[in-house]
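Most newcomers find our protein records easier to grasp once they have seen one. To make this concrete, we reproduce a full record directly below:

===
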Amino acid sequence: MFRPQIPTMPTATPITPHHAAPAPVVSMPAAACACQHTAPAPVASRPAVQLTPKGLVAAVGGGVAAVLVVGTVLVSLLLAVAITAASIAVCAVVLRSLLADQRKGR
């Protein structure tokens, strides 16, 4: 389970470049005609994304919720480290006291 797995490299087939000759460009002179040409209709572009007050509240609410969750996790980790440090300090004081009493011969 804890052995490192070395990935195997897949065997790749060699890539052969295929160069095709470009198609010849044929330009025809514009012929004068009597018909009336119209410009193409403008393409309707997609409107820019606008945050409505409801969407803005949801976005801000989601951000606030994420900050609160991350803050809660960080504070709980800090509290766990502080409690552990205090416990180790108390154990060190007790052991020091016991060893000092033992040296004095009590």
The chain is about 50% helix and 0% strand.
